[in-house]
Amino acid sequence: MEGREGGNGTRLAQRSRFISAVGAGARALADLLLPISCVVCERLVPEGEQGIVCGHCWSRVRELPHPRCQRCGHPLGNYACQWCKYLPPFVRAARSYCWVSPGTGGKIIHALKYSQWRDVAPPIAQRLARLTWPDDVVEERAALVPVPLASSRERERGYNQSALIAGGLCARWHVPLWDDCLVRARVTRTQTELTPGERLSNVAGAFRVRDSARAKLRGAHVVLVDDVVTTRATLGAGASALFDAGSRIISYVTFGRAAAAGDRVQQ
Ligand SMILES: [Zn+2]
Ligand SMILES: [Zn+2]
Fold first, then answer.
1. pLDDT by residue (tens digit) across 160-207?
2. Which ligand neighbours the alpha carbon of 58 most closely?
3. DSSP string computed for the chain
4. Residue ranges of the domains in the chain?
5. Could you tell me the pTM of the whole model?
6. Which ligand lies nearest the alpha carbon of 107?
7. Which CATH number, 2.80.10, 3.40.50, 3.20.20, 1.20.1250, labels domain 84-257?
8. pLDDT, tens digit, 9 for 90 and up, residues 2-40
9. What's the gap in Å between 20 CA and the centre of ligand 2?
């Protein structure tokens, strides 16, 4: 695994140097001479495809099906939406691109979070930019705020995956990235190990807003960005901190969403 990633990483750097040195036509030659293997399926990324996740894997990502709830973007069954009734009233809207479990969406996030594949973030942002929102959200959104990692975890990883995704989306939405607003107030346990009830108490009060960010947050509608939403507990804790610091309203965007009981997820 280590060797494969090292090879891909070196090759990516060699490719970009090669393409910038040789100019037009270089990409085709680079495909031939410096092939990249897909970080999800490990097969060679076919000639002409860009990025480090192959087109076949992207085609296997399960987008959230329609019809979806206007507010939270969750697929609707025969009943009223059960997903957004737990969102705080100051959360205007939420959107996610795909299911993460089961499926390829989760593997893509895993590559971004745990395998040092920062290059997975731009194609994720590209897909998030396709999501549609209520008109008022599009008109009002003032900035994107990534959910912060604990500083020890960010040092270990070398980056915050949510900030990478948010950065790519900012460029497409033409709004600023406010990655200096929220900080972790304390270290929390990894949410994946916990029951839904434990998750809530694990993250309650986990975030605080920097004093220097209060002025720009006042009255603003900001969009909180995370890689995945499972129980809404982490996003809820972040949103509460932003709201308490003066934000008027908050929306959420994540790449992945965990299916809840009763959701129809195609395998
Ligand atoms: Zn693949
Ligand atoms: Zn809903």
1. 999 999 999 999 999 999 999 999 987 777 777 778 778 777 888 889
2. 1
3. -HHHHHHHHHHHHHHHHHHHHH-TTHHHHHHHHS--B-TTT-SBPPTT--SSS-HHHHHHS-BPPSSB-TTT-PBP-SSS-SSGGGS-TTEEEEEEEEE-SSSHHHHHHHHHHHS--GGGHHHHHHHHTT----HHHHHHEEEEEEPPPPHHHHHHHSS-HHHHHHHHHHHHHT--B-TTSEEESS----GGGS-HHHHHHHHTT-EEE-GGGHHHHTT-EEEEEEEEESSSHHHHHHHHHHHHTT-SEEEEEEEEEPPPTT-----
4. 2-60, 84-257
5. 0.86
6. 1
7. 3.40.50
8. 344 556 777 777 777 777 777 656 666 666 666 789 999
9. 46
